[in-house]
TrEMBL record:
Record field: catalytic activity: GTP + H2O = GDP + phosphate + H(+)
Residues annotated to bind GTP: 106-113, 189-193, 247-250
Domain SRP54-type proteins GTP-binding: 268-281
UniProt subunit comment: Part of the signal recognition particle protein translocation system, which is composed of SRP and FtsY.
Protein name (Swiss-Prot/TrEMBL): Signal recognition particle protein
EC top class, as a word: hydrolase
Location in the cell: Cytoplasm
Alphabetized SUPFAM superfamilies for the sequence: P-loop containing nucleoside triphosphate hydrolases, Signal peptide-binding domain
Alphabetical UniProt keywords: Cytoplasm, GTP-binding, Hydrolase, Nucleotide-binding, Ribonucleoprotein, RNA-binding, Signal recognition particle
GO cellular component terms listed in the entry, alphabetical order: signal recognition particle
EC number of this enzyme: 3.6.5.4
PROSITE patterns on file: SRP54
Family stated for the protein in its record: Belongs to the GTP-binding SRP family. SRP54 subfamily.
Length: 440
């Protein structure tokens, strides 16, 4: 996420290294680079300019008051300003109605349908809600099907009327259906177009007026940079939406949309999408995002994700197994699956402070565990529970079955052995905490 921007800002701060304090001259050089970094990240020109002006004012002002090195001081000021620019505090969703109605808006392909599913899943699993998804795209039967597939995946009912071509009616009927059947949140997915057009705007404005949602969210693809900001403006002029959802932040996004959108439409980013899976949704925290932009990682989110996967009972079982020397490859596989549930590897690595910089040239596979899983799946149940019986002959068979090389099987066996030993050593005390972090 935002690797390029992070890199360039880092270089900008480097200019101040070795200087005793911030002066008009060295600050000007740094800010020129900061501004260039922002523009390269597709931040709106006016915003970039205002941003650096504010940073300059603060830097000169605070210069005499702190013991920080100029570089550190600059990082702190830029971090605070970035946080402010992206909205300051975290903004929640309004779930006050019964049912609370959430309307999704945005262009086709922005990730609306996917996000509708993610949000339903989030509200169901994290907020104990009983959501209903509503398919209001009357133009593309495929869109209705897509929502049904998503609904099935997460176990959430989907309301649709494939024969009805009136989205206002469908949305109203869905709300009636929700009231009669005990759904307390209604998420209405609407039709998008490839570009902003009057007909689409009228249609969604009509739905908006008819159902009076508690929350109207505008979904936008972060990869589209400045365009994202312009589209946001067009939708906001018509809908006066409540918040923004920024999708596809897992991709090669430059960051401009995340940084500019709040100050252009004066509406907070509420959620981000970081992948195609239903779990790839995060509440947007401006200060954590600022940390990530500045390459400081996001340990808070990382620990939170680990905690979400933590299951007390599973952890106890695992500890017993380790104590009795019964930790096997099936347990190893469970651990891997838990880590995978935390998110894709690139995303997780990005949350570790400094990791992005250190691993800049390392290609991280999204599915880094692919080979390990294939190898374990090629083992017999007996081999998985008693790894000691895996001899050379068995290794050859396992490698063949999993499409890997014997060296890879050997490597996994070695890793497994080390991990088992370490876990045994760590029983109790600090070890428990580490295992908790690992979601075991
Ligand atoms: P809609 O037309 O606005 O409903 O968009 P869709 O929900 O159909 O999404 C369009 C494409 O973007 C699909 O292929 C999704 O899988 C993909 N997509 C949606 N959200 C994300 C995300 O956060 N990250 C990535 N990488 N892909 C996403």
């Amino acid at each position: 996420m935002f690797d390029n921007l992070t890199d360039k800002l880092d270089k900008a701060f480097h200019i101040l290294k070795g200087h005793g304090k911030i002066t008009d001259v060295n600050v000007a050089d740094t800010l020129k680079e900061v501004r260039r970094a922002l523009l390269d990240a597709d931040v709106n020109f006016k915003i970039a300019k205002e941003f650096t002006n504010k940073v300059k004012e603060k830097a000169i002002g605070e210069n005499v008051l702190t013991n920080l090195q100029p570089g550190q001081l600059m990082v702190k000021i830029v971090k605070d300003e970035l946080t402010e620019l992206m909205g300051g505090d975290v903004a929640g969703v309004n779930l006050s109605g019964n049912p609370s109605v959430i309307l999704m808006s945005g262009l086709q392909g922005s990730g609306k349908t996917t996000f509708s599913g993610k949000l339903a899943n989030f509200l169901k699993t994290k907020k104990n809600k009983n959501p209903l998804l509503v398919a209001c795209d009357v133009y593309r039967p495929a869109a209705i099907n897509q929502l049904h597939v998503v609904g099935e995946q997460i176990g959430v009912e989907v309301y649709s009327e494939p024969e009805n071509k009136n989205p206002v009616e469908i949305a109203q009927n869905a709300i009636k259906h929700a009231k009669a059947n005990g759904f307390n949140v209604v998420i209405v997915d609407t039709a998008g177009r490839l570009a902003v057009d009057e007909e689409m705007m009228n249609e969604i404005a009509n739905v908006h007026k008819a159902i009076q949602p508690q929350e109207t969210l505008f979904v936008v693809d972060a990869m589209t940079g400045q365009d994202a900001v312009n589209t946001a403006k067009a939708f906001n002029d018509r809908l006066n939406f409540d918040g923004v959802v920024l999708t596809k932040l897992d991709g090669d996004t430059r960051g401009g949309a995340a940084i500019s959108i709040k100050s252009v439409v004066n509406k907070p980013i509420k959620f981000i999408g970081t992948g195609e899976k239903m779990e790839a949704i995060d509440v947007f925290y401006p200060s954590r995002m600022a940390d990530r932009i500045l390459g400081m990682g996001d340990v808070v989110s990382l620990v939170e994700r680990a905690q979400e996967q933590y299951n007390e009972e599973e952890a106890r079982k695992l500890q017993k197994k380790i104590a009795k020397n019964e930790f096997g490859f099936d347990d190893f596989l469970t651990q891997i699956q838990q880590i995978k549930k935390m998110g894709n590897m690139k995303d997780l690595v990005g949350m570790i402070p400094g990791a992005n910089k250190a691993l800049k040239d390392v290609e991280i596979e999204d599915d880094a565990f692919k080979h390990i899983e294939a190898i374990i799946h090629s083992m017999t149940p007996e081999e998985r529970s008693k790894p000691a019986i895996i001899d050379g002959k068995r290794k050859t068979r396992i490698a063949k079955g999993s499409g890997t090389k014997v060296e890879q099987v050997n490597q996994l066996m070695k890793q497994f052995d080390q991990m088992s030993k370490m876990m045994k050593m760590m029983q109790g005390g600090a070890g428990k905490n580490l295992m908790r972090m690992m979601g075991g």
